[in-house]
Amino acid sequence: MLNMGGPATVPEVGPFLQRLFSDPEIIALGPLQGTLGPFIAKRRTPRIEKQYEEIGGSPIRRWTEIQGRGVTERLDKALPALAPFKSYIAFRYAHPLTEETLLEMKRDGVQRAIAFSQYPQYSCTTAGSSMNHLWRELRRLGMEQDFQWSVIDRWPVHPGYVSAIVKLVQEGLDRFPADVRSQVPIVFSSHGLPQKIIERGDQYAQEVAGTVQAVMQKLEYSNPYIHAWQSKVGPLPWLVPKTEKVLEGLGKQGFKNVLVAPVGFTSDHVETLFELDIEYKESAMKAGIERFERAASLNDEPLFIDALADVVKTHIESGQVSTNQYRINCAYCVNRTCRSVVNPIKPYSNLRTEFGFK
């Protein structure tokens, strides 16, 4: 189960930021990556430590462990001929790191493995970075032949995933008085990306938009809605509109009730617990919004864990190495590692390799 991870305790914030800002696939700093990355991380650490103090550390590992146990229990029942299943967590910037997980898998005698992205929508900066790091670590550790791999690289409109979000959004709406409920705007909030990554051909924005549309379609467009972006870092232009600005704008227009629904996050972490619940709520209240509600995160929602298990089951039964979409690089991809698979379960190549790109 591949994800970014998060600092579970305040002392873990510094190392987490060091790893994050040293990753050129998420924050590209060019030739100065090795110098500027650690410098930025050190500058940001005190402020980010205060955020994690306020929320009591990131719960993402705990939620991922719960989700993993739920998935394997369901798979053992659904595919008994392949049981027992076991879930492993490989975080990109927090413990358990990819190296730690691969060594544990080897000690356990694992032979067949699925790299399961916990980012429902694919981006080179998230799922792509985690996959590329996985392949690099296998080579660095000399473990290229230890496991046979397939990958689950995205699942943005899986019916069970969409239904889980719909349930949580509806529960959020139900907290408002019946006489205003249908007029409450839903602000879907997703982690943003620098515009230059989208211009390179990254498919994340359209896949998140696809999730939002699938949710609203299932809700029969019961409420007005806006899709916005949060968590901007650095001076470069990012996707807009910003969630905070949308909330301020709605308040100034006279809206008194707003429901915010996180999309793209599979559990609570600092972006929901601090950014949405504390920072953006305060901005909304200052702008005149009197009732600010947030739809619950997916966390241990049974519908969501059912969906995760079904994603894996469907993948296994397909016999595929990956989705077809994983095989096509961004139009202006600059990373030769992208869209590769080490020791796949059957012959695999990405499309640009097939077409002779050097």
Description:
This protein has helices at 13-21, 33-55, 60-78, 98-107, 127-140, 159-173, 195-199, 204-218, 243-253, 270-286, 302-318, 351-354; strands at 2-3, 90-91, 112-116, 148-152, 186-191, 225-230, 257-262, 291-294. The protein has a four-stranded parallel β-sheet with strand order 6-5-7-8, sandwiched between helices. A two-stranded parallel ribbon has the order 1-2. The chain is an alpha/beta fold. The mean pLDDT is 96. It has a domain at 159-294: Rossmann fold, CATH 3.40.50. The protein is 44% helix and 10% strand. The protein starts with a strand and ends with a helix.
Fill in the keyword field for this structure.
358 residues; alpha/beta; Rossmann fold; four-stranded parallel beta sheet; 10% strand; globular
Beta-strand content bin: 5-15%
Q: Which residue ranges are poorly predicted, with pLDDT under 50 across at least 5 consecutive positions?
A: none
- Strand elements, count: 8
* Overall 3D form: globular
Can you name the CATH architecture of the domain at 159-294?
3-Layer(aba) Sandwich
Question: Strands of the largest sheet, in order across it?
Answer: 6-5-7-8
Distance separating the two termini: 32 Å
Radius of gyration, in angstroms, nearest whole number: 20 Å
Main sheet attributes: strand count, strand direction, barrel closure: 4 strands, parallel
Helix/strand-derived category reads: alpha/beta
Helix content: 40-55%
State mean pLDDT (0 to 100 scale).
96
At the fold tier of CATH, the topology name of the domain at 159-294 is: Rossmann fold
